[in-house]
Write a structure and sequence with these properties.
- This protein is an alpha+beta fold.
- The chain has 2 domains: about 35 residues; about 50 residues, ATPase, substrate binding domain, subdomain 4 (Actin, Chain A, domain 4), CATH 3.90.640.10.
- It has 3 helices and 4 strands.
- Strands 1, 2, 3 and 4 form a 4-stranded antiparallel β-sheet that branches.
- α1 crosses α2.
- The two termini are about 15 Å apart.
Length: about 80
Amino acid sequence: MTGVLVDVGDGATHIVHVADGYFIGSSIRSIPLLGKDVTLFIQQLMRERGEHIPSEDSLKVARKVKESYFYTCSDIVKRDEEETI
């Protein structure tokens, strides 16, 4: 399996290159884009669109939007097998 793994956490984002099932340690990179930044960006977009969400709930709603539309795969091997069937 070859590809790129992008791990976006609330406090850090890491990008790891994988070749033939092995990660390439020298290629691991961190970028200054945090999951929290994405949540705050979604919150800002909702405000700019004029969404009527109480201010005390807007952060929770933005987090829910982010979590609902980001794709995660807990077992990539199983997912690949299902796509080939």
